[in-house]
Structures are given as C-alpha cells and as structure tokens.
Write a structure and sequence with these properties.
- The complex is a heterodimer of chains A (233) and B (218).
- Chain A has 6 helices and 11 strands.
- With 233 residues, chain A is α/β, with parallel strands linked by helices.
- Chain A is globular and about 50 Å long.
- Chain B has 5 helices and 15 strands.
- The radius of gyration of chain B is 17 Å and the shape is globular.
- The mean pLDDT of chain B is 96.
- Classes of the chains: A alpha/beta (233), B alpha/beta (218).
- At the A-B interface, helix 4, helix 5 and helix 6 of A face helix 3, strand 9 and helix 4 of B.
C-alpha cells in the first residue's frame, strides 16, 4: 500500500505559492475543502487563479480569499449571491471567466482522464463560444473546450483511507470526484481518515491513485446557505 | 393573470408519467408541488441528485444534501447521488426528459437569455447553457413582461444569450405559447386575460387563432 497520509493541512499544502492555479471542489458551500481554504488564507498566497463552480459567500468558502484579494482570476459557472465577487468582477479588480457548469465538470474530468479537449453543444451561439473552434456533428453545432491545467486540486470527501481512497456523502460529492487527479498535486481532506483496509473496496468512489496527499480536517463548519424546511402536518 | 404558483401549476400539467425532470431556480422549483400524485416522476438537480424530495422537516436539515439552488432538500426512496460530470452526462446525453427554467428574455426563434445584464448584474449561467443546448423538451416559466412593464417576448433577444433556437414552449402569467416557424403561437390565455392584452405585452410576432381557450389549471 502506498501511504498518502500527511499529518495536517500545513503539510498537505506544501509547495503552494503565488500565481498558481488551484481547482477546488464544492457546490455552493456543500462539499468545499474548508481546511485547505483556511490554510490558503493563512498562507496569504496572492495572484492565484481558482477553478471552482462557485466562489462561496462573502464570509465563507472562497469568499474568504476574495475578501483578502488573493484571487486574480476565477473560473466558475455561477456567481450567485456572493456580493463581493460581483462587486470585484463588475469593477474589473477580478478577472472572471464564466463557463457552463457541465463544461466545467467535463474540463476537470478531461484533465483527470488525459483527454486534451472535447466538443460540447453547451454555449454554442453565445459569448462562451467566442474565439473557440466550432464543428457540426449529427446536424448540431458544438464548440471545442480544453482540459483544465492546474497546480493543485483541493477536494473534500466524507471518508478516506491512508491509501487515498475516497468516499463522498450526499450532494457534497459534486465536483470533488472530477477534480481528483485533475491537477499536478491533488490534496484530499476528509472528515474521517481511516487505516487502509477499513473501507470496502466495492464502495470506494475515487481510488487513491488520483490523490497525492490526504489528511483529516480538524473541523468542519458545513455552513448551510439556504435553510429551507417544511412544516410538520 | 396568474400568480407564480399558478404558472407552476399550469406547467405541472406538462409533466408526464415516467419523466425525469430538471427544475431551474425560481418558479420552476414550485412545479414539484403541483405534479399529480398518480404521476411517477423523478426530479434531477444538477448538483448531483436524482430522486429529489421535498424540503426537510425543521431540525432535519443536512448540509450535505442540497439542490442546485443551495436549498436544503431530502432524498426520496430510489434516489441516487452522483458527481457533476455524471450529472451533465444525464443532461447532455438527453436522458433527462424535460427541462423547466426561468428567463429574462425569449425570442421568437427560440433564443433564450437568462444569465447576465452587462454592467449591471452577472449571476452566471450555472447549468443553464448545458441544459438548453441539449434538452429536447424545454419549457420556460416567466412573467410576460419585466418590472418596468417591457415585453420579455421579443423579436430578438437584447441580452447575452444562454442558448439559440431551443425554447419550444413558454408559460407566463398571461398565456401559454409555443414557438414554431420563427413565431410565437398563442395556445391558451390566463383566466380573465384577453387576447388583446397578450398581444400588447408581446413585442415579437404573435400568431393568434380565432378561438384561444382559457387555461385549465387543476
């Protein structure tokens, strides 16, 4: 067994520096690598490019890096309710590339899988297609999209083992499995890190080969963005 | 004139037995509340769940279980979770039968705009571009006019596009319309709303048959 375990987030983030490109899993605030983000804030790396579906909210998730102006460029599909993100984007302080969500997932998946580029119909005839090759397949137009290139991928799973195998929970899975192995170094953080052999190989979502470093996060806030409930009748 | 709930109620009648349905944020989310009990349907949320259930009871909210609007939800028996790439394989691969989403503008050729107002508002396209580019069956749920009273049913969209030639059906607070041969065709009018009112609220070319039935909601 090749052991991927590192003792803490500081060790896991070794080699992170200014100007790098990071991929970060999560959808909204669900399944975000909370501990890695806190460490990136602490390290105060500047001028970074972040590939992540969203940018958190003003005071949590990637919003924390935005607040400190550590991010030079965001590649996302949805700005949503993050006011600081929208402000920095409209004022031109932040370079933002908005791309379709399925394209974002597939560009990560392509990077993970050694596929340099692929055609998708998403965005044809829109701003997204500007400057991109287009081609007709089966009577329908498609545009050429390229695999991402990133220095670090930060993913978050529910359980993991020392071999780097990962199991996700609920909709906190989202982009995390697609980003694992899609960067030079993949750092996985888990709520529970177990000895090798503790997880059933049948149940593993992402095999450890896609992960270089794994650690157990010290704590998880798991903030809820939109608390919606129904009444008991 | 229909309320947002009533728009959702009318759209629910388009949901057929055995459909996998993706609901967008806003009015489309409400559609789930109005689908008849005897209709078997699975709701897909693009952040990674098929078999999405209603909101949880208070105290049972789970941060690891949300929909694409980031709202806490539940999973029904038979539900599954999956990663984002798999989710969009369902969408791009046309395994999802019906997509219901909101819009800022729709044009008579089926173009749709719903993600950006240059210089003012940028929400992002989220999964909307993937959805409209691939779905065979798209219903747009929206108000017929914007807050300023201007028509959202146009000859040509003025805002940056989300997709081209893709919208087939629109349900608004005033009418049910179909897009065919580069024109809006009036199918039904909301209770108490005249054809003339709909005509006045539609900037694009509107084809109106002699008899336009009133919508039946329930």
């Amino acid at each position: 067994m090749i052991n991927k375990k590192v003792t803490n987030v500081t060790e896991a983030c070794k080699g992170v520096s200014d100007g790098m490109t990071f991929m970060l899993g999560g959808f909204g605030l669900s399944g975000i690598p909370e501990n890695a983000i806190a460490e990136l804030v602490r390290l105060n790396v500047k001028g970074v490019t972040c590939i992540s579906n969203n940018a958190g909210v003003d005071d949590f998730g990637l919003g924390l890096l935005l607040q400190k102006k550590q991010i030079k460029k965001m590649i996302s599909s949805y700005v949503g309710e993050n006011a600081e993100f929208e402000r920095q984007m409209l004022s031109g302080e932040l370079d933002v590339e908005l791309i379709p969500q399925g394209t974002l997932a597939q560009r990560a998946r392509a990077a993970q899988s050694g596929i340099p580029a692929f055609y998708t119909p998403a965005g044809y005839g829109t701003e997204v297609a500007e400057g991109k090759e287009s081609r007709e397949f089966n009577g329908k137009m498609h545009i050429l999209e390229h695999a991402f290139k990133a220095d670090f991928a930060f993913v978050k799973a529910w359980k993991g083992d020392e071999a780097g195998n990962l199991i996700f929970k609920g909709t906190a899975r989202n982009f995390n499995p697609n980003m694992a192995g899609a960067a030079t170094i993949t750092v996985a953080e888990v709520e529970e890190l177990l000895p090798a052999g503790s997880l059933d190989p049948n149940e593993i979502h992402i095999p450890g080969i896609f992960v270089q470093r794994i650690f157990q996060g010290e704590q998880y806030e798991k903030r809820i963005e939109q608390r919606t409930v129904r009444q008991r009748s | 004139m229909l309320t947002k709930e009533q728009i959702a109620q009318r759209i629910a009648k388009e949901v057929k037995n055995g459909y996998y349905v993706n609901l967008g944020i806003g009015i489309p989310t409400l559609v789930a509340n109005f689908v008849r009990d005897d209709i078997e349907v699975d709701f897909q949320s693009e952040n990674g769940i098929l078999g999405m259930g209603p909101f949880p009871f208070e105290g049972e909210e789970n941060p690891d279980l949300i929909n694409a609007g980031k709202q806490t939800i539940t999973a029904l028996p038979g539900a599954s979770f999956f990663d984002s790439a798999t989710s969009f394989s369902m969408i791009r691969g046309q395994h999802v039968d019906l997509t219901i989403l909101g819009a800022m503008e729709v044009a008579q050729n089926g173009d749709i705009a719903n993600w950006k107002i240059p210089g003012k508002m940028v929400k992002g396209m989220g999964g909307a571009m993937d959805l409209v580019a691939s779905a065979e069956n798209i219903i747009v749920a929206m108000m017929h006019t914007n807050r300023a009273g201007a028509s959202k049913m146009l000859k040509q969209c003025s805002l940056p596009l989300t997709g081209v030639n893709c919208v087939k059906k629109i349900v608004t607070n005033l009418a049910v319309l179909e897009i065919r041969d580069g024109k809006f065709h009036l199918l039904e009018r909301a209770p108490g709303v005249s054809v003339e009112e709909i005509q006045n609220a539609t900037e694009g070319d509107l084809v109106t048959p002699t008899n336009v039935p009133e919508m039946v909601l329930a």
